[in-house]
Design goal:
This protein has 222 residues and is mainly α. Helices cover 54% and strands 8% of the residues. Among the domains are: 2-88, no CATH class; 96-147. The strands form two sheets. It has a two-stranded parallel sheet. Strands 3-4 form a two-stranded antiparallel sheet.
């Protein structure tokens, strides 16, 4: 869905956000992105969307600023001029309370990674919060937690090991959208398995991350 990425990139500042929804699991989605189409710049949610019919695949639903369904159909048939731009004209700036609520959710999201000792992902999520809502109380908390991120015993070793894996796979969350398709997945899977062995005792969270990615690299999308 490269055209949806391009639309979001073009109209994000005006309030257009794309969220993909799939019933496939995370590994399957990452495998598709890695081996078939890395050009994703929008979020993909795992699960279902109760209340929204999907008579064919792919299927898109445009949600108006008031939460109502403004249009639905094949994404290829959506008109920017007729369907999207009139909705963008209705977008208003969020209130202070709405901004604080959104910032609080981003903080909870980052804290979940921190609790899992996924330090590089937590750092990325904290930074996203600080950049998006710099004046919020949640951003102040995020800054403090970033400063103390590596104080925990073993955190620096985990952080460095996780960064080594992120560098190899091309992204903290998923393959880098600007990267090219993998040319030699077997070779990269072998590197990841070697890293998993290397970090098994010193950085167990990084070792688990390496094995997750090794599995994704090993099984090519067909």
């Amino acid at each position: 869905m490269g055209h949806l990425s391009r639309l979001q990139d073009k109209y994000r500042a005006k309030g257009f956000v794309v969220i993909g929804i799939t019933g496939e699991d995370r590994a399957t989605n990452l495998r598709y992105m890695l081996h078939n189409d890395p050009a994703f710049t929008y979020r993909v949610a795992l699960g279902s969307a109760p209340g929204y019919e999907t008579p064919e695949f792919p299927w898109s639903v445009l949600i108006a600023p008031d939460g109502s369904v403004a249009w639905q159909g094949s994404p290829a048939r959506m008109s920017v001029k007729k369907n999207l731009k009139p909705l963008l004209a209705q977008v208003r700036k969020p209130t202070a309370a709405e901004r604080d609520a959104r910032a609080a959710k981003m903080l909870a999201f980052a804290n979940a990674f921190l609790a899992d000792h996924f330090f590089v992902r937590a750092e990325s999520a904290f930074q996203a919060l600080i950049t998006t809502y710099p004046a919020s109380e949640a951003a102040t908390t995020a800054k403090a937690r970033m400063k103390s991120l590596l104080v925990v015993d073993g955190a620096r070793v985990e952080y460095d090991a996780q960064n080594a894996i992120v560098k190899l796979v091309g992204g903290v969350e998923a393959p880098n959208p600007t990267s090219k398709r993998v040319k030699n997945p077997e070779r990269d899977a072998a590197k990841l398995k070697k890293l998993a062995q290397q970090y098994a005792e010193s950085a167990p969270r990084a070792a688990r991350l390496a094995l997750e990615w090794a599995d994704i690299y090993s099984e090519v999308w067909k």
